[in-house]
Every structure is written in structure tokens, then in C-alpha cells.
Design a protein that fits this description.
Keywords: Signal
Protein name: Sporulation protein
Number of helices: 5
Distance between the termini: 35 Å
Largest sheet: 5 strands, mixed
Shape: globular
Pfam family, one: Germane
Structural class: alpha+beta
Radius of gyration: 20 Å
Order of helices and strands: HEEEEHEEEHEEEEHEEEEHEEEE
InterPro entries: GerMN
Amino acid sequence: MSKKRQVAVVSVLASSVYLAGCGLFESNEAIDPPQTVSYLEDGEAVETTGEEANPTSSISTEAPEGSVRTDLFLISADGYVVPQSFDLPEGENAAQQALDYLVDGGPITNLLPNGYRAVLPADTEVTVKMDGETAVVDFSNEFATYAPEDEQHILQSITWTLTQFDGVKNVKLSLNGEELTEMPVDGTPIAANGTSRGMGINLLASDLVDITNTKPVVVYYLTQTAGGYDYVPVTTRISSESTNASTEIVQELIEGPAFTSSLVSDFMPGVALVSEPTIADGTLTLNFNEGILMNMEDRIVSSHTLNALTLSLTEQPGIERITIQVNGEMVEATDDGTSLISPVTRPENVNTGSY
């Protein structure tokens, strides 16, 4: 897999953290992790239950009264499907409301971050009903008017937006009441049991070679926006024979995204693990060399590096929080002041900044 090491962008990202809020670590409020998180790999779900949040974490997940914070998966200017968090009005059918907000020209219009667009064609009408753990989505005829090149984006966006809700594991699509076995414009097949997060997201062409002895994992890279940087989930593949998937995921982040992509990584040159990651009671401990540090004297880590590690590794079953060490000694903080004395948990929502 062709990779690029992000040497030139490191200094840019490091300085921009003081100016551009990416929205993951924005305040000094504590985080409450999801009470129940569903991890889907190869179409199968693994349930993990959130525990007490790290009291020193600084991720704000509280929505204003009368609203619910929801991730909507939008299309970026570079053609990636990216979660953006919005405080939507509280209602009886949160899943249907989320898809209503994905319609071009609908209520999302005045809320769209710069460089992002809605994924569903204008005037599309949506109905969402639950059948067990499957969300059954029926679209009006307008749904079939999207551009062929958007088909994968649309399928991923619908699937990942709906499966964030408790109890939704799979998604089935229909057009005017007729179940779809393939997408209506470019013919992407849809499995009989529907789609799930096991389908992946933002699959880059270079990630699709030699899948026989590999398995999919989701890692988070950065994309530059008008307001700073956002975190982009990307499905890549690691060896299915690996005895420690965390090691390979960290290595993917260190090597950075494919050279042909517009994504970037904030890992410093020369960074490496000095020992295998260990996990105990849901906490993954990562022991790096001094290359992980932005500042040797103050022993601080880039907040972008921390966020990418946290988001990527807590996608794995059984990992609920991470802690970072350098040569066996605890790292105390990030460059934006986030304390690392206690393990860092995953936020419920990604890219929660104001635009």
C-alpha cells in the first residue's frame, strides 16, 4: 500500500490547534461515553457497555434542552463521507429525522459546514420503520435521481447515520414500497439482510487489494476544512492473522493515508511503539518512543494525534479508553491542555465544532 509520511503538515497542524477547533476536544466538561456501543465487523455486531467517563476528559457531548445531538454523515468537498454533529430537535423518530436532514434543500441547508453537502436528492421523501434490529427505509421516486458517482457515498451515509442509534444493526432500502436488491442508479448490490457498518466507509482503491488474508478496520485521518481540520473515518485492511490488531492500527496511523488521497496524518517523524499495546479492563495502554512528543521538555502530545488514536482504537471491540506512555512513563497532557493523567474515552459524537 502506497503511503506518505506527513512531515510537512506536522508543524501546520501543531500550530493550528490553537486557532481551529475541530470539535472533538473543545471544553473542560467531562464526557459521558455511549451507554451501549455497537461495533460491526464483517456484518457482525459486538456489544460493549460504557463505564464511568474520564473526569479529566474535555469533550462536550451535551445537547441543549429539547434537542438531541446526532451525527449526520455528509459528503465533503474532497468526496469523503464525514460525520458532522448537529443538535436536532427532539422527536419520536430520531432515525427518520436524521435522514430528513440529509435531503438536499431540506432543514440541513442553513446548517451545513463550509465544503460539505447533503447526500439525498432534493425533494426526496423518507419513511423509516423498524423491523427488529433492521431499519427499513422507504424513499420516494426522487431518490433515484442522484449522480452515479455519489452512489457509494449515499449508501454509506444512510447506513452509518442510521446505525448510530441504539438497536439499529442493519438497514434495508425500498423505493415506493418495493425492496431494493441493488441501488437504483449504478446498480451497487444490497445484501438480502441489508447493509451494516461492516460494509466499510471511505474505502480507498489502494485498500482493496489482496483481501484474502486481511480484515477491515476503521482508522481516522484528518481533512482540512475552511475552519480547521475534521476527522474522517476510512476503512483499511490489516492482516487477519495479527495477534494484536492495535499494533497494526497504530502503524496505519503512523504511516499515514494513501499518497493519492487528500487526507493527512499528524504523527511526528520517527514515532514508533516501543512495546506491544496491552489491554486491561477496557483500557488500552500505548507505549511510544519520544517521537510521539511535540515538546520534549514539557512532554506534551498533539491533540490531533491523541484524537486519531482514540477514535481509531475504540472502534475495536473491548477497547473503551486509551492511555499514552513514553518509554513506560505517563504523558500528562496534550498541546490544547487536555489532561492525560486518566485514560481518555471515546466521544459519542465526532466533529462537533462550530462553523
